[in-house]
Design goal:
alpha/beta; Rossmann fold; 2 domains; about 35% helix; binds (2R)-2,3-dihydroxypropanoic acid
């Protein structure tokens, strides 16, 4: 019997690829840049399974191009806003994601960004590299204290809670905004509050919601004007949750003090984007889950989801379990 045919839309760690190769005929896009759309539409033709990335648009046209034999889409990410779930449901295609394994790495990065912005690390580093450091400066690079500050977490899922744990270790007051109370929030003394209260009272606001219609541009002009003038905004979730031009204006006009973004809109952020003309912002290239161990685990999980789907078994991590109800 011939092996199922799998298309992997970009190189992922061997930890996942080797699992796939043992069971399937695997074709991997070898380039550093994502597959151009036209190429993707032709590459997926005849595939039984697709291993996609957050840079791939998985919509009706892609599923159609793959053909009726397509059994599973496995997304190499916890977020799946790149996948048209309704289109997958119409074809009864289960979609997998990689939750859990990237929680700590992403919370680490959120906390690193928070610290780096608070203490202006990148500005200070640029200052040294450009030979401007002439003496110890009593008034130089004054930043914000993290210890004992108020942190507002928008979206208290796994990653939001992991960040809250870190902040509790810094004696922070933790406010969070979520649809439901988090079952372990009390352990950290975290308070569930309205979004307005969180914005008004937090020294740091960190975004951890998924990108859905209700969270797109959640942080807009109005939200930014509700924040403290000294506030620092951190986003490690999805770029479209923050209105980039509203943020630019807020940082330029000192409506808020600083921002640290691992995700942007657009993504990638062009080098000539207005945000990058400012000193009071740090931007990293969507590296929240970028540790060796985490990416290996994500690759394994993505492969396991894909292999389960090929065998007609329930995916270990399925974002549209409704396909199994039919
Ligand atoms: C995700 O998994 O959704 C992150 O954004 C990338 O690891």
């Amino acid at each position: 019997m011939s092996k199922p045919h799998v298309v992997v839309m970009r190189r992922i760690p061997e930890a996942g690829l080797s699992l796939l190769r043992a069971a399937a005929d695997v074709r991997v896009w070898p380039e550093e840049m994502p597959m151009p759309r036209a190429t993707a539409l032709s590459w997926v033709a005849g595939a039984d399974g697709l291993l996609t990335l957050l840079t791939d648009r998985v919509d009706g046209a892609l599923l159609e191009a793959a053909g009726p034999q397509l059994k599973v889409v496995s997304n190499f990410a916890v977020g799946y806003d790149n996948v048209d779930i309704a289109a997958c449901n119409r074809r009864s295609i289960p979609v997998g994601n990689t939750p859990g394994v990237l929680t700590e790495a992403t919370a680490d990065l959120a906390f690193a960004l928070l610290m780096a912005a608070a203490r202006r690390l990148l500005e200070a580093d640029r200052f040294v590299r450009t030979a401007q450091w002439h003496t110890w400066m009593p008034l130089g690079f004054l930043g914000a204290a993290v210890h004992g500050s108020s942190i507002g977490i928008i979206g208290m899922g796994r990653i939001g809670y992991a960040l809250a744990r870190r902040c509790a270790g810094f004696d922070c007051r933790i406010l969070y905004h979520n649809r439901h109370p988090h079952p372990q929030a009390d352990r950290l003394g975290a308070e569930l509050v309205s979004l307005d209260t969180l914005l008004a009272q937090s020294d740091f606001v960190s975004v951890h919601t998924p990108l859905v219609a209700e969270t797109e541009r959640l942080i807009d002009d109005t939200a930014l004007h509700k924040m403290k003038r000294t506030a620092i905004l951190v986003n490690t979730a999805r770029g479209k949750i923050v209105d980039s031009m509203a943020l630019y204006r807020a940082l330029r006009d000192s409506v808020i003090a600083y921002a640290a973004l691992d995700v942007t809109n657009p993504e990638p952020l062009p080098a000539d984007h207005p945000l990058l003309t400012l000193d009071n912002i740090i931007v990293t290239p969507h590296i929240g889950s970028a540790t060796v161990a985490t990416r290996d685990q994500m690759a394994r999980l993505a492969a396991e989801n894909l292999l389960a789907g090929l065998c007609g078994e329930r995916l270990p991590f399925c974002v549209n379990p409704e396909v199994y109800d039919v």
